[in-house]
Amino acid sequence: MVEFLYHYFNDSVGPFRNLSDLEPEEAERVLNDLRLQKKGFASKRSMDYLTIRRSLENRARELFVQKGGKPIRSHPHYMTVGECPWLMEWFEKGKVLRIPITEFDSLTLSFTYGDLFPTMRYQDGKKYRGQVYTLNEIYHVIDEFGLPQEWNNQGKDGPERYIEVQIWDDKPLTKWLR
After folding, report:
1. Dihedral sign, Cα of residue 94, residue 27, residue 64, residue 146
2. Cα–Cα distance for residue pair 49/88, rounded to 1 Å
3. What is the pLDDT of residues 134-143, one digit of tens each?
């Protein structure tokens, strides 16, 4: 059973700062600033990152709605199922929030087995590729495959290193949103 969701972020920016919430030109400017600073994981993202990201987020939202999900946001915030300490390395001043899953309405949570990018783009025939799961469904996936951070914490066995949670509602996050 999932008890907590984790959000990793740069302390100098704050939690739940989301490029997808910005207008495309502003998001591109922010990402270019990160590239110029050459700090953290975001500085290494490709030039078409935002276009791909928005497309994948739209696809995840569509799949979630098809399964009965009730997203409120157009684009999700991101968390993980279980701890994934290596994500601290993505940030110059990494921090983590741990929030009980009971704070969220399950109809506003979708899950991918791995980060959204490789889950939706990597083609290796694994049955969780291209899939978005509901809370009830992710329990079955965890029963079958375990938590990626337990069997692939070094990333040597594929791109899945955690289960990503897409948060489709701001309400449970209001105390952390600016």
Report:
1. negative
2. 21
3. 999 999 999 9
Q: Both tokens of residue 133?
A: 């799961």
Burial 130-168 (b: 16+ CB within 10 A, else e): ebbbbbeebeebbeeeebbbeebeeeeeebbbbbbbbbb
Residue-wise pLDDT tens digits, 69-108: 999 999 999 999 999 888 888 777 888 999 999 999 999 9
| Torsion from C-alpha of 25, 109, 118, 128, nearest 10 degrees | -150
90: which DSSP letter? G
Q: Let me know if 175 is exposed, middle or buried by CB neighbors in 10 A (0-12, 13-18, 19+).
A: exposed
**CA max distance for the chain:** 42
DSSP 142: H
Structure tokens at 85: 């300490």
CA dihedral (39, 45, 49, 54) in degrees, to 10, reads: -50
User: Is the pLDDT assigned to residue 34 strictly greater than 80?
Assistant: no
> Phi then psi for 133, rounded to 5 degrees?
-120, 150
First to last CA, the chain: 31
